[in-house]
Amino acid sequence: MNRLLQAALVLMIVPGVSCTAVAAGCSIQPPKHASHQQLAALAKVSKTNATRTALDAVKQPGTKRIKSAELESENQCLIWSFDIGIAGSKVTHEVAIDAGTGTVLSATTETAAQEADELRGESKPAHGT
């Protein structure tokens, strides 16, 4: 399950908040089934700038390393998605950056077990940071 969808599910549990709030909070809502080339053409924030913002969003001390980075459409929102590791830590920080404004849309943490579950297609809620 993707990270923004997880956040949307958490929001659905909170009374009075709907999952459309996540999509409404982003600046670019790409068409469904857009190709990677089409997504790249829509992005206004470079990968370099998004990377800098994502790294700054992780407040845990230590040497930070980008484990993965991709431009993608999640929950009707064009984002730069980053998995960030910290030297000596078993936690992965997942940060979503709005590809239109460069703002942080979400920042969560995930244990190695949760990350393995996600890779297998199973999902457990991540913890907000």
| Count of DSSP strands | 5
Distance, first to last CA:
19 Å
Order of helices and strands: HHHHEEEEHE
Low-confidence stretches: 1-22, 124-129
What is the C-level CATH assignment? Alpha Beta
Which fold name is given in CATH as the topology?
Answer: Nuclear Transport Factor 2, Chain: A
User: Taking strands numbered 1, 2, ... along the chain, how are they ordered across the largest sheet?
Assistant: 1-2-3-4-5
CATH architecture: Roll
Strand content: 25-35%
Give me the secondary-structure category: alpha+beta
Largest sheet: 5 strands, antiparallel
Number of domains: 1
Q: Indicate the mean pLDDT.
A: 81
Helix content: 25-40%
Please compute the radius of gyration using only Cα atoms.
Answer: 14 Å
Defining key terms:
Nuclear Transport Factor 2, Chain: A, five-stranded antiparallel sheet, 33% helix, globular, disordered N terminus
Quick structural overview:
With about 130 residues, the protein is an alpha+beta fold.
Molecular structure report:
This protein has 129 residues and is α+β, with helices and mostly antiparallel strands. It has a five-stranded antiparallel sheet.
Secondary structure blueprint with pairings:
Blueprint (H helix, E strand, L loop, with lengths): L2 H11 L6 H5 L11 H7 L4 H11 L6 E11 L2 E10 L5 E7 L5 E7 L1 H9 L6 E2 L1
Antiparallel strand pairs: 1-2, 2-3, 3-4, 4-5
